[in-house]
Amino acid sequence: MKIKPITLLCSVSLVFITIIACKKETTTTTTITTTPTTGTSGVPDVYKKIYNASDMYVDGNFLVIKVTSLPDHKSPYYQGTQWASTKYEAYNGTNPQWSQNPNKIAQSNLTFRIPLNPVAATTHAATPGGPIGVAINGVPIFNQYAAGGAPLTGEINSFDQYYGHPQQQGQYHYHAEPYYLTATKGKDALMGFLLDGFPVYGPNHGTTAVSNSDLDAYHGHTTATVDYPNGIYHYHTTSVDPYINGNGFYGTAGTVSQ
Ligand SMILES: [Zn+2]
Ligand SMILES: [Zn+2]
């Protein structure tokens, strides 16, 4: 039997469509089996400045940072702990009002998940009590309030010579400039990250001292830094209230769990 040209054309078209369909299906399968980058090898260089984490890895769009909260520097608050023989140091700071609080340093395991690509939030959430960020030595950063939202005025007198102290459960933390880090890394160095993924720098921007009036309501500004030559929003510590963060997170915060 003789095949009509129109029928032949349809048959060829059908075969062609089938090939396209098969190809498309293969592509889809490949996409599904692709896994997100995980492991220390995927951690961007800037985060490697966090030198005292117990673990750190990329999980999708987040950096996971695990810490013990134990400061790598000495403290009067190591007195009476298992680390006292090597880490205890009597107060030798400059505050004549110094008054040690009754707490002792204890290990406090924390897991921070901070966005790898921080973005400004449309609604700036207030910072919670407890950890709001992490310093490069694995010590949590707290906000500018004492328990109950009171100003830090009284609590400051219990800050040790490195400007941190433990809370009732022994979790050591900084509310202000971490003196050990500015002494060892520099006044203009990267101090850590808040939960929104934006970096925290010391009291200097380059060689210039930063004051509250140089910063916005969240205690930061957007310019280039050594670590971010193309510019980034970043917080600075200052010697007066609110010290590290102002009216809440500039960006959308990640999470911290205990
Ligand atoms: Zn405190
Ligand atoms: Zn700056």
> How would you classify the quaternary structure?
single chain
The number of distinct helices, counting runs of at least 4 residues, comes to 3
Work out the count of structural domains.
1
How many E strands?
A: 15
Largest sheet, in brief, is: 6 strands, mixed
Coarse structural class: alpha+beta
Beta strand %: 15-25%
Instruction: State the distance separating the first and last CA atoms.
Output: 80 Å
Written as H for each helix and E for each strand, in order along the chain, the element string is: HEEEHEEEEEHEEEEEEE
Low-pLDDT segments: 1-38
How much helix is in the residues? 10-25%
Radius of gyration: 26 Å
> What is the topology, as strand order, of the major beta sheet?
6-5-9-10-14-13
What is the averaged pLDDT score?
A: 88
Q: Could you say which overall geometry the principal axes of the C-alpha atoms support?
A: globular
The small molecules bound here are: zinc ion
Which properties best describe this structure?
six-stranded mixed beta sheet; alpha+beta; five-stranded antiparallel beta sheet; 258 residues; binds zinc ion
Can you describe this structure?
- By secondary structure, the chain is α+β, with helices and mostly antiparallel strands.
- It has one domain.
- Helices cover 16% and strands 21% of the residues.
- The strands form four sheets. Strands 6-5-9-10-14-13 form a six-stranded mixed β-sheet.
- Strand 7 and strand 8 form a beta hairpin.
- The N terminus is likely disordered.
- One zinc ion binds next to strand 13 and strand 14.
